[in-house]
Design brief:
Elements: E1 15-20, E2 24-29, H1 37-40, E3 45-48, E4 56-57, E5 63-70, E6 74-81, E7 95-97, E8 112-115, E9 127-128, E10 132-137, E11 140-146, H2 153-156, H3 165-169, E12 179-184, E13 192-194, E14 200-202, E15 225-231, H4 233-237, E16 261-265, E17 270-274, E18 298-303
Parallel strand pairs: 1-18, 3-4, 5-12, 8-18
Antiparallel strand pairs: 1-2, 2-3, 5-6, 6-11, 7-10, 8-9, 10-11, 12-15, 13-14, 16-17
Length: about 300
């Protein structure tokens, strides 16, 4: 366990998030039933696939498809989920969580992430992941954690495109009903694309005052993947409770970070997102969750060797 002394005099009520390769990961989600991501960005808690983390457990059957991807510069998990089973209100198209937030204290508040993804097989050697982003909502999730030693971590894990979701921030080939772990190439930096004339362009996200984003000047290029290994859903659900027995535990997490209304697309759905952008034209990056307590600090831990 990593001990963290939170900034700004906040009493630590730690959030801990785990992602163990394909079968062991966590997602950020609310602690109270029927919550909106926009209203709970600062206080999300960890929901994990396996017990023993001190977190809530994602109920068996909630995950409908998962793709884990490791690339030269980042790792990401993307998937389809019945979000009502992790306290996200049905129909909520969600939002973005990242270590920055409007006030630079992170969403969740004080959120930190640690990983062994780049520790050469030493699962006890953690590195803090400085740059990451996580989109939840629209019954999809995506989370990307960028190599802290990588020179372009901030570019791959860009956090300014909170209104266009998973499709544009973490392009992927995740499929509903498929559970797989792959290696992959790096994506283009979010927001950077090549137009029909061959010119490299940078997309500028419009202000929310102009309303929902209904058109985009480009479609993201999905990076190539290889060495994919397919699993049955039972492999990931093995240690989970069934939905009928999973009762969300209450938590004293508190977070406040204003609301944003955004538009985007989900793996196959589009809509407006509040509090960030939980949409993407396809699910792209799995999110980490963690346990939290009042005014909690988020510690996300990737067990990725």
């Amino acid at each position: 366990m990593v001990t963290f002394h939170p900034p700004f005099g906040v009493t630590p009520l730690h959030l801990v998030a785990y992602l163990v390769l394909f079968l062991d990961f966590c997602l950020w989600a609310p602690d109270k039933v029927d919550s909106l991501i926009a209203d709970t960005e600062g206080e999300e808690v960890a929901w994990c696939t396996k017990p023993g983390r001190g977190t809530r457990l994602i109920p068996a059957g909630a995950l409908r498809g998962v793709q884990f991807m490791k690339t030269p510069d980042y790792v990401q998990v993307v998937g389809f989920i019945d979000q009502s089973l992790i306290n996200i209100k049905p129909g909520d198209t969600g939002g973005e969580l990242d270590p920055h937030g409007a006030d630079l204290r992170g969403n969740p508040l004080g959120g930190l992430m640690y990983s062994t993804a780049w520790s050469n097989g030493n699962n006890n050697s953690y590195q803090q992941v400085i740059e990451w982003h996580n989109f939840m909502g629209g019954d999809i999730f995506c989370l990307k954690a960028c190599d802290p030693a990588g020179p372009n971590a901030a570019k791959f894990c860009q956090h300014i495109y909170d209104r266009i979701g998973c499709l544009y921030n973490a392009p992927n080939t995740a499929q509903n009903g498929t559970f797989e772990s792959c290696q992959g190439d790096n994506q283009d930096y979010p927001g950077i694309y090549t137009d029909p004339t061959g010119q490299v362009q940078t997309y500028t996200q419009p202000p929310e005052s102009l309303g929902a984003i209904s058109t985009m000047p480009y479609q993201p290029k999905v990076p190539a993947s290889s060495n994919c290994v397919t699993y049955t859903s039972s492999a990931i659900f093995a240690a989970l409770p069934t939905p009928s027995t999973a009762t969300p535990a209450s938590s004293n997490s508190v977070r406040s970070s204003g609301t944003r209304t955004s538009s985007g697309t989900g793996p196959s759905n589009t809509g407006s997102t509040s509090g960030g952008s939980g949409n993407g034209a396809s699910p792209t990056s799995l999110a980490f969750s963690s346990i939290t307590s009042l005014f909690g600090v988020a510690l996300a831990i990737f067990f990725l060797s």
